[in-house]
Design a protein that fits this description.
- InterPro entries: CPQ (IPR039866), Peptidase_M28 (IPR007484).
- Belongs to the peptidase M28 family.
- It holds the Pfam family Peptidase_M28.
- The structure is a single chain.
- The chain is an alpha/beta fold.
- It has one domain: Aminopeptidase.
- The protein has a six-stranded mixed beta sheet with strand order 2-1-3-6-4-5.
- Helix 1 links the parallel strand 1 and strand 2.
- Helix 1 packs across helix 6.
Length: 188
Amino acid sequence: IVMVSGHLDSWDVGQGAMDDGGGVFISWEALSLIKDLGLRPKRTLRLVLWTGEEQGGIGAKQYYQLHKENISNFDIVMESDEGTFKPSGLGFTGNAKARDIVKEIMTLLQPINATDVYDNADGTDIELWMRDGVPGASLHNDINKYFWFHHSQGDTMTVQDPNQMNLCAAVWTVVSYVIADMEEMLPR
């Protein structure tokens, strides 16, 4: 299973369009693009739209409890939770061999200049999986304006730039599809 995810996070003020509606959108769009292109990877792509992240990650904890017995089937867990501004690459948590594979995959994103692989994936909703050895990835993007809107009444759809969101969706699509279509799972 290659899991792509974002969470529905609008719990206080605003609409939650950027945090984390953008992560939900690019995760949904990645699978839509793969389907629209008629691609059928060797492994399952799974979209998870988390809830309850701000209330202690209760949605992620419940999902983990329901699926941890199949943890060996999870190839990578991916979460976007820092907006969907211009992407630069991925944060990655995994061993050195898996990191080398991810670095090679990221070279495919040279045309959009989103090739960097940073230390450590971030994500409340995927941390239990990573703690137990499943490789994890988080979207890295230009967050200079992130806290202008984060949990504010300004977090509306007008914050979203369709071109930047498309670039984020491209990163999510390429990474999830290539990993799902590899002969072997990422090394642990």
